Amino acid sequence: MPTLSMAPQVFSILSALVAERAGLHFDATHAAIFGDKVAARALEVGFDSLLEYYYFLRYDAAGQTELDLLIEQLVVGETYLFRELAPLEVAITRFVLPAIDQGRRARIWCAACATGEEPHTVAMILAARGLLNEVDLVASDISNAALRRARAGRFGRRALRGEVPAFAARWVRADPEGVSVEGRLTDAIQWQRINLIDGASWPEMGLFDVILCRNVLIYFADDTARRVAANLARRLRTGGALLVGISESLLRFGTELRCEERDGVFLYEKLA
Ligand SMILES: C[S@@+](CC[C@H](N)C(=O)[O-])C[C@H]1O[C@@H](n2cnc3c(N)ncnc32)[C@H](O)[C@@H]1O
Questions:
Q1: Three-class SS of residue 208?
Q2: Is the CB of residue 195 below 6 angstroms from any atom belonging to ligand 1?
Q3: Domain boundaries, the chain
Q4: Which CATH code for domain 8-74?
């Protein structure tokens, strides 16, 4: 199969372009995998020089669209149903239930939802507690391809690779080819394409009680992750909480949110 090798100088400008557009940070240790993926895409769309491909992405009128398609190839969409379930349960108990008890409609944003397993998990937790109709649930990702799959409510068998809670049996059906979630849950989720990097382009969505931004900040450089977390904090209601993945921490690079441990789970709360 033909391929193109990526010179260090071209790696440097192409990886900077991808970081600028999507936040994804590829350092020298990822140069080989980055080079392979970019070369495959460049060849697919008819380029035989990676420098020419760079000029097209950066300066051609059609370059923006192609850059978005390249980014689709570079994102890591690893996710599954009921992943890191305990923090979701705690966030709903501590931040969503009190809002509903006050007679307010609660709001949750799942801000990098990949192929939809995470917001469907949230929808199931809410439905199991009879709360699905009391909550606005927004799910977004940068990847249109991932969102198309998410909206179908149909996943591969690996979507059930983790521990499966008893309540899942009411909404999830596994067959030899894959896993389906009841359409009522998919329909309760408002799906949107949102690039986390560009806070100025986010649609007006109002404030949220809970924002999930799990297992995505690890792909960004620290200053980018700090900026994204600060923009997400602005979309939190006072008293609301931001959740990152269990192996991630905002304290590493500083945040105006307060890290609190609630029922054994770490969350970042907006105090004022
Ligand atoms: C590893 S998945 C995490 C999915 C889910 N949150 C979870 O924890 O299972 C990371 C997701 O972040 C998305 N992503 C990467 N860069 C993004 C950006 N700049 N804006 C929005 N989403 C982005 C990817 O498309 C991918 O679907």
A1: strand
A2: yes
A3: 8-74, 85-269
A4: 1.10.155
Beta carbons of 118 and 170 less than 8 angstroms apart = no
- For domain 85-269, which CATH number applies: 3.40.630.30, 3.40.50.150, 3.40.50.300, 3.40.50.450? 3.40.50.150
Question: Does the beta carbon of 146 lie inside 6 Å of ligand 1?
Answer: yes
Residue length, the chain?
272
- pTM value > 0.85: yes
Take residue 186 and report the two structure tokens written for it: 């998919």
CA of 18 to the centre of ligand 1 (A): 15
Tens of pLDDT, residues 56-92: 999 999 999 999 999 999 999 999 999 999 999 999 9
Strand order, beta sheet including 135-141: 189-193, 135-141, 106-110, 208-212, 236-243, 265-269, 258-262
The minimum-distance atom of ligand 1 relative to the CA of 212 is 6
- 94 Cα to the center of ligand 1, angstroms: 25
Are the C-beta atoms of 213 and 244 separated by less than 8 Å?
Answer: yes
- What token pair was written down for 177? 């080819």
